[in-house]
């Protein structure tokens, strides 16, 4: 295992959290895996304290479970937690999208258009991780367009379990091109200043999760809690 070099621009525990979160979301560290403090501290060339702090944040995000006397395990994916996260996310983002349809500046719309082009390039390269980052950026930019990035931060804090399903669906159930088309519909509604159309396009986009989780759970049953 290669050693990751820490940078000085971000707290060490935050860097470890972010990188482990990415590994868990992309299932590079599969659900059910035991996480070793010793191995991870070696990987990042740090003491065990920031690793423990990262584990606490991962537990708060619902990605790991600390079992006394047994260790820290990557949680299996809970369909109920995915549904709850989607419900909360939709409530927050619907409020954001309606305001954005009325308030987003021309420059904000230009940034969204540029993001869509980058999404298409990522899809052409079959870059799943890059696409997911751009997908998140698209939604963050909408919140930013109404000067309410806290709305996106709130969503980010509750969507970690959703992100694992999102990553698993990209290859078959919800390929990037279909998601880009959905993003395009959202963008066109924002550009037309049509709050009703923007809300409906967003709801259809977020409801994709409802239809995708069952086939993904059937294909990867060992990674899911009982449905």
SSE blueprint and pairings:
Elements: H1 12-25, E1 34-35, H2 37-44, H3 48-60, E2 64-67, E3 71-74, H4 79-103, H5 106-124, H6 128-144, H7 149-158, H8 160-169, H9 176-191, H10 195-206, H11 208-219
Antiparallel strand pairs: 1-3, 2-3
Helix pairs in contact: 1-3, 2-3, 4-7, 4-10, 5-6, 5-9, 6-7, 8-11, 9-10
Number of strands: 3
Number of helices: 11
Please provide the ordered H/E string of secondary-structure elements: HEHHEEHHHHHHHH
User: Would you tell me the overall average pLDDT?
Assistant: 91
Helix content: 55-70%
Supply the CATH class of the largest domain. Answer: Mainly Alpha
Report how far apart the termini are: 35 Å
Provide the domain count: 2
Quickly give the structural class: mainly alpha
Overall spatial form: globular
Sheet with the most strands: spatial strand order: 1-3-2
Query: Could you say what the CATH architecture of the largest domain is?
Result: Up-down Bundle
Strand proportion, as a percent range, falls in: under 5%
- Uncertain regions: pLDDT < 50 for 5+ in a row? none
Enter the CATH topology name of the largest domain.
Answer: Four Helix Bundle (Hemerythrin (Met), subunit A)
Main sheet attributes: strand count, strand direction, barrel closure: 3 strands, antiparallel
Radius of gyration: 18 Å
């Amino acid at each position: 295992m290669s050693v990751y070099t820490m940078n000085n621009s971000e707290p060490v525990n935050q860097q470890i959290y972010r990188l482990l979160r990415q590994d868990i979301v992309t299932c590079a560290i599969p659900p059910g895996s035991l996480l070793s403090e010793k191995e991870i501290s070696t990987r990042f060339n740090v003491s065990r304290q920031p690793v423990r702090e990262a584990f606490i944040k991962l537990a708060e995000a619902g990605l790991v479970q600390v079992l006394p006397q047994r260790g820290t395990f990557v949680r299996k994916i809970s369909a109920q937690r995915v549904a709850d996260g989607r419900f909360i996310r939709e409530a927050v983002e619907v409020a954001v999208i309606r305001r954005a349809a009325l308030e987003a500046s021309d420059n904000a719309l230009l940034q969204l258009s540029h993001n869509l082009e980058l999404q298409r390039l990522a899809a052409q390269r079959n870059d799943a991780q890059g696409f997911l980052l751009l997908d998140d950026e698209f939604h963050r930019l909408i919140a930013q367009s109404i000067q309410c990035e806290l709305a996106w931060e709130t969503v980010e804090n509750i969507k970690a379990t959703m992100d694992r399903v999102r990553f698993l669906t990209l290859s078959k159930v919800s390929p990037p091109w279909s998601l880009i088309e959905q993003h395009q519909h959202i963008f066109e509604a924002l550009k037309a200043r049509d709050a009703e159309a923007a809300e409906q396009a967003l709801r259809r986009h977020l409801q994709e999760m409802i239809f995708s989780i069952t086939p993904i759970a059937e294909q990867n049953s060992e990674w899911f809690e009982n449905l």
